[in-house]
Amino acid sequence: MKKSIKLVVAIAATSLVTSVAVTPAAHGATKQKVCVALDTAGINDKSFNQSSYDGAKMALSKGYASSIKYWPAKSNADYAPNINKMIAEKCTLIVGVGFLLGDAIAVAAKANPSVKFGFVDGWGLGNNVKAITYKTDENSFIVGYMAAALSKTGKVGTYGGIPIPTVTIFMEGFANGVAHYNLMKNKNVQVLGWNTETKTGTFLGGFDDTTKALQTSISLEQQGADFIFPVAGGMQATTAANSQKTKKSNVIWVDAKVMNTGAQYANVVPVSVVKGLGEGVLATVKEAYDGKFSSNMYVGTMANKGVSIALTPAWNNKVSASLKAEIAKLSKDIASGNIIALNSVE
């Protein structure tokens, strides 16, 4: 039977609830008081929080916001109190950064229908909440293929912060990209840290445990992985520092370009999986500014450049022209829909 492969591009089931209702706006061109509720990784995580807040900064610079402010969280227990403080301070647009803020946003949005909410990595929670989502399995698929092609040991690895859909979507895409490489090249590169059949893998239990991140990185190296894809926010820096020390592995950067958030690790990071967090937040603020805020979901894809990959300049001469051409074709095929699925090989 002829072999074919399909790339299944999936957002978490909870993210598929899309409302089309529009929140009435008194008038357009209304500058927003934008307040950002961070998750526990902090504003300088060189990843998720930092990139999302950059979107608020861009909105301020473009005149879509009159002021911006962020609230850090030490634990999940801070999410609801932080959002309540933002409401007390008369924030007109509150952006919650991360899947775990969902419960707090749901309660606050229902109790405060006149306040607009952006929910990064979220799902539909009412007429005044816009979910900001990303098909990160698309670009993760491409770097999975790339890692498999570059691997000298025939083993690559990944780990996540916690097993939530917005983390596992990266890991699934990565493993699927490796599977695609194996199919196309008749190879058998193994993926450590994620099982596409059982949907289980290796997780730290959080996004700020540097000790466990280091232990996991070393363990993956000891098992033979020479390319590691950490999906755990700032913990990728711990993995990259270990790679520089041991010289046994290289790292795939997540959420932002390594040259923007971790340039000191460029020598061990061939490519970044870029999630347009700032762009999604900026688009949400602008929509409110224009008086067109709605609960229609924002979805970043390869096609609209909401997700992408970025080859690290220091690796330009280390990646062959033929592999670059294959990666470029994969990118076009995914963006155009020519590769539309991946979980099944027939």
UniProtKB/TrEMBL annotation:
Q: Cite the entry's keywords alphabetically.
A: Cell membrane, Lipoprotein, Membrane, Signal
Domain ABC transporter substrate-binding protein PnrA-like, first and last residues per copy: 35-324
Keyword Transport attached: no
Localization of this protein: Cell membrane
Please tell me where this protein is predominantly located: membrane
Q: Which domain of life is it from?
A: Bacteria
Q: Name one GO cellular component term.
A: plasma membrane
The UniProt entry's coiled-coil ranges are none
Offer one Pfam family short name for this entry. Bmp
PANTHER family hit by this protein: ABC TRANSPORTER GUANOSINE-BINDING PROTEIN NUPN, TRANSCRIPTIONAL ACTIVATOR PROTEIN MED
Write down what this protein is called.
Answer: Basic membrane protein A and related proteins
Q: Which organism is it from?
A: Candidatus Nanopelagicus abundans
Organism classification: Bacteria, Bacillati, Actinomycetota, Actinomycetes, Candidatus Nanopelagicales
